[in-house]
């Protein structure tokens, strides 16, 4: 493309940045469109600086994906996105985080805007991928970094979603942990991964299994048990085979609305038809009153075992 001066080249420059959603360095834009075009675009406000020496279409400067591209361009040739932002780009998590983590060389000590975080941690090399034009860490490494930077519930949910979405395995996550000499709540993460190997499928179930119904107190409970009442596959969060009780942990957003209510009632009726009593515990039940959950289950268990003459509770 010719490097002409004036409004024409500036317009092409802006349209290219807007159409591609790119963020590019000063040197790259000058090489492609010429310095007069870039100066004109900046003077008219159609192009703006995202980071020192990195520019994007003005209306896209706050776009998370553009910011990711800007960070990679700014930290080239070695920088890459990791943590929650990279996990999101792998399809883990519903929203891009407000702060994006870029992994850089340990010698970097440059100032970044509030929406960016420099990770200078010494880690062994990880496999890098390009997703939507952004260089990102592999999913297991991104997830373990997300564990470092997210609040505990989001961190645990990210790990769980990665495993059950096929983007990480117990082995690959364990290897990613081993690459870090320092990792907050390492023991808790190792415990979570062990539970994932045993079938935990949601954050609420993880909390229920860890805090409300730990195995040392409730060895009779089996987790993620499959059953086929009325010829339909059902998976129980936890199952007491002796007392025939199904424990269900109902998280946010998954059991609301009329349709969900009808579905839950249909499921419960199918379970009762084969002699299984369903008990439902909400997020607030499990996290704020776990002792009540335990006592409620024990009471129902005692009542169901009494007619059988076992005398066990």
Number of contiguous helices: 13
| Shape, per Cα inertia axes | elongated
Order of helices and strands: HEHHEEHEHEEEEHHHHHEEEHEHH
- List segments where confidence is low: pLDDT < 50 over at least 5 consecutive residues: none
The biggest sheet amounts to: 4 strands, mixed
Strand content bin: 15-25%
Q: Structural class of the secondary structure composition?
A: alpha+beta
Number of domains as seen in the coordinates: 3
Order of strands across the main sheet: 9-10-11-12
Q: Compute the separation of the termini in Å.
A: 80 Å
Q: How many β-strand stretches?
A: 12
Radius of gyration: 26 Å
| Helix coverage percent | 40-55%
Mean pLDDT: 90
What does this protein structure show overall?
The protein is α+β, with helices and mostly antiparallel strands. The protein has three domains: 1-61, Arc Repressor Mutant, subunit A, CATH 1.10.10; 64-197, no CATH class; 203-308, Endonuclease, Chain A, CATH 3.40.960. The chain has helices spanning 7-20, 26-33, 35-44, 64-74, 83-89, 139-149, 152-164, 170-178, 186-197, 203-212, 257-273, 283-288, 290-305; strands at residues 24-25, 47-51, 54-57, 80-82, 100-103, 116-119, 128-131, 134-137, 221-227, 234-240, 245-250, 277-282. The strands form four sheets. Strands 9-10-11-12 form a four-stranded mixed β-sheet, with helices on both faces. The protein has a three-stranded antiparallel β-sheet with strand order 1-3-2. A three-stranded mixed β-sheet has the order 4-5-6. Strand 9 and strand 10 (234-240) form a beta hairpin. Helix 6 packs across helix 8 (170-178), helix 7 runs parallel beside helix 9 (186-197) and helix 8 (170-178) runs antiparallel to helix 9 (186-197). The protein is elongated, with a radius of gyration of 26 Å.
């Amino acid at each position: 493309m010719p490097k002409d001066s004036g409004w024409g080249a500036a317009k092409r420059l802006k349209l290219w940045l807007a159409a591609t959603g790119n963020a590019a360095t000063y040197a790259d834009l000058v090489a492609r469109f010429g310095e007069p075009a870039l100066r004109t675009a900046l003077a008219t406000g159609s192009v703006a600086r995202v980071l020192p020496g990195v520019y994007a279409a003005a209306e896209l400067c706050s776009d998370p994906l553009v910011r990711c591209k800007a960070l990679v361009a700014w930290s080239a040739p070695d920088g890459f996105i990791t943590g929650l932002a990279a996990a999101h780009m792998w399809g883990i998590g519903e929203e891009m985080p407000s702060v994006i983590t870029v992994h850089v060389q340990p010698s970097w000590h440059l100032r970044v805007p509030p929406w960016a975080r420099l990770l200078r941690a010494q880690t062994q090399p990880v496999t890098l991928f390009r997703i939507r034009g952004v260089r990102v860490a592999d999913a297991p490494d991104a997830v373990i970094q997300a564990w470092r930077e997210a609040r505990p519930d989001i961190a645990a949910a990210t790990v769980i979603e990665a495993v059950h979405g096929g983007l990480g395995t117990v082995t690959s996550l364990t290897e990613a942990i081993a690459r870090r000499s320092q990792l907050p709540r390492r023991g808790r993460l190792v415990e979570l991964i062990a539970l994932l190997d045993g079938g935990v499928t949601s954050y609420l179930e993880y909390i229920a299994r860890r805090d409300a119904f730990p195995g040392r107190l409730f060895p009779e409970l089996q987790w993620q048990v499959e059953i086929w009442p009325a010829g339909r596959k059902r998976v129980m969060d936890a199952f007491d085979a002796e007392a025939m009780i199904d424990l269900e942990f109902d998280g946010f957003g998954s059991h609301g609305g009329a349709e969900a209510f009808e579905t839950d009632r249909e499921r419960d009726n199918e379970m009762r038809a084969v002699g299984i009593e369903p008990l439902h515990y909400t997020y607030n039940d499990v996290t704020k009153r776990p002792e009540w959950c335990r006592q409620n289950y024990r009471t129902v268990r005692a009542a169901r075992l009494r007619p059988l003459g076992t005398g066990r509770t």
